[in-house]
Amino acid sequence: MKYVYICPDTMAGIFTGVYDAWASKVGHENVELRVKEPDDLEFFCEYITVKEDMDKAEKVRRSIQRKLGEGVYHSICYAACAYFPDRAQAIYHTLVDFFAKEGAASKRPLASGWHPGGTGSNYFENLRNPHVKRLQEIYRRVSMESYRYIEILRFKELENKVLFAVIEPEHNILQFLAPHFAERFPLERWLIYDKGRKRALGHEPGKGCALLDGADLPEHYQEYCADSQADYERLWKDFCNHIAIKERVSWARQRQMIPIKYRKYMEEFDTK
Amino acid sequence: MIIQEQMSVGEKLNILSDAAKYDVACTSSGSSRKNDGKGMGNCEPAGICHSFAADGRCISLLKILFTNECIYDCKYCINRSSNDVVRTSFTPDEICELTMGFYRRNYIEGLFLSSGVLHNPGYTMELLYETVYKLRNVHHFQGYIHLKAIPGANEEIIQRAGYLVDRMSVNLELPTADGLKKLAPNKTRKNILRPMRQIQLAAKESKQEVALYHHAPAFVPAGQSTQMIIGATGESDYELVHVAESLYRQFELKRVFYSAYVHVNEDSSLPALPGGPPLLREHRLYQADWLMRFYGFRGEELLSENQPNFNVMLDPKCDWALRHLERFPVEINRADYYTLLRVPGIGTTSAWRIVGARKYGSLDFEHLKKIGVVLKRALYFITCNGRTMYPIRLDADYIVRNMMNPREKLPVEPGITYEQLSLFDTSTVGKKEMVV
Question: Which of A153, A243, A256 shows the shortest C-beta gap to B106?
């Protein structure tokens, strides 16, 4: 018999799912965690819908932070915001393998003579384990995408001096952009909008950042741009064209460094 | 010489970014500065590339010349004084405004400011200093600044500028003093190395001061770099690697950049290069540069007097490994980090991952594949638990032939070699015939 836990699509939801699945004691190998309702139901399989519970999520969060350390917790947070449907499964089994199997053995040296250490802070190095490997990969993809958007996000200055940017990321990375831009532009009012998820991240000087869900983008927001915006866009575009050495032109190399899917909101590329 | 008055900022930007594009250094890494809450910008230690130009090079900094009016007549340079090109200069305020405007929109990571020599080196350096001073103190810009030190300017102004910027660089221009004499008659090796030494010593001193007093101003915190032109004069790769290595050792440079010579001027003392800039050669030099900085290789290991140039077909590390087959195969589950680094197909990341993962149990080829080792190259040089992936022979010709043909999964018998054919070829085929 297989038990499928369907978690709400949030970090707390996934952590609650981890707690419930563990507490059910049906055997870890019989458990599967999902974040989405399945399209086809399977035979010999029980579906359990998890209800988000802050207390349970907090317990899971605390034990990750205590036993696996800040670094691993950070990675799991990133992974929980990924788009991949198997992320909850990877998180659950990584935790199970650490707490019930390999981590439990960490008090004594392994057969190879190595002592893996008392804490799990370097448990993510255990790439032999397929779940850890998968979780690590999910984390890497999410963190790489958020770094990518730090690079390629483009602000437009609006008439009221607000800096406004639109992004369409694959993973839910909006909140990970906050520390970088809050540090970089502490005296500016700026707003980043995730078009696919209809979420906005705003910043007000002296007050910090705020996330807003269910925000709609006005259709003709381009009209609210400040007058100088078009000038700077033209200057930037000219600069990008002039800085290339024509004897070395290689479109393939450019496409490799910055794939076309990212170019939609970058002024220097003509996507039309 | 055409000097146009009253040019718009846009036109100036076009001319002066065009003139600056041959400078290669466009990195924004190495400096970590937090915003103090009073200005704009910070520095990310890993560096941020905001865009990529049509030639595939990253655009991280606003790379411009202050002016392209130059009194020098360097033969390879588009701005040489005897060239008839449109000349113009920015004012410090125009540069500040452009930098701030671009930075606010997240177009750039900072400013890369170089310049032609206007009137004399001291005067030019004074202008550059004024620009970065305004940027830091009037506009409160806290992002990355890379400034060129102009050789021949007095020491005091370079010293003052060093405290304002993140990275400074002096261009070596050409790898040998002879080449410099031939192609850049107004520049001397001694003049170039003097500010380089000055920056090195000041940075060293400042580092100690910062260690002692946490808030002491940092001098050139992202270090010093330089660049040299490849393929304009006739030196070998061995000489180039040697020069780079001694710069790293004696001047503690952070980076040496290599710039494939681009033919922009017609001059009898310049090479013609009908095949375009020597990009592959530049690539091989960068590979060797990485091997020296991150992999613990020494220059003389990679090349020697007898073998002065890199192999065109193989990367320097593979080439080295094939010449040192006595060191292989390496056992993945035992070898230390630095030994792993010497295996072709294993880089710094995968070496770290191997060292981390094998604490939890022995690794197999299946694991290596997932870890990110390039087995296509590595499989000839490694064993896992005493076994190779396929039955292979540890023979240079055999390995090269199979590595060159990545579509073939299983190694096959050798027939040709990667060395140059000679009339008296003594390859395996020839031998067999003789025996028969």
Answer: A153
Output Rg (C-alpha) for chain B, integer angstroms. 25
List strand residue ranges (DSSP E) for chain A, in order: 2-6, 31-34, 45-49, 156-157, 163-167, 190-194, 199-204, 208-213
Q: From residue B152, how far is each of B10, B120, B180, B189, B430 by CA, in Å?
A: 31, 8, 16, 11, 62
Distance between CA B340 and CA B334 in Å, rounded? 9
**Residue boundaries of the structural domains of chain A:** 2-145, 153-265
Which ranges constitute the DSSP H helices of B324-415? 337-341, 348-357, 365-371, 375-378, 396-403
Which residues from chain B sit within 8 angstroms of residue A251, using beta carbons? 54
Q: B329 preceded by cis ω (within 30°)? A: yes
Rounded Cα gap, residues B217 and B137, in angstroms: 14
Please state, in angstroms and rounded to a whole number, the distance separating the CA atoms of residues A34 and B416: 55
ipTM computed for the complex: 0.89
- List, for residues A156-213, the tens digit of each pLDDT value: 999 989 999 999 999 999 999 999 999 999 999 999 999 999 999 999 998 989 999 8
Strand order in the sheet with A156-157: A156-157, A163-167, A190-194, A199-204, A208-213
Query: How many whole angstroms from its chain centre is CA B236?
Result: 18
Q: b/e string for A248-266 if b means 16 or more Cβ within 10 A? A: bebeebbeeebeeebbebb
What is the amino acid identity at position A207? K
Residue identified by tokens 């869900």 is A213
Do strands B255-260 and B58-59 pair parallel, antiparallel, or not at all (unpaired)? unpaired
Domains recognised in chain B with CATH numbers: 2-267 (3.20.20.70), 326-435 (no CATH)
**Confidence (pTM):** 0.87
Backbone dihedral angles phi then psi of residue A133, each to the nearest 5 degrees: -60, -45
User: Which B residues 338-357 touch A at CB under 8 Å?
Assistant: 353, 356-357
Q: Do A236 and B107 touch (CB under 8 A)?
A: yes
- Can you give the three-state secondary structure of A128-166, one letter per residue? CCHHHHHHHHHHHHHHHHHHHHHHHCCCEEECCCCEEEE
Residue with tokens 């932070």: A65
At residue B436, does pLDDT exceed 80? no
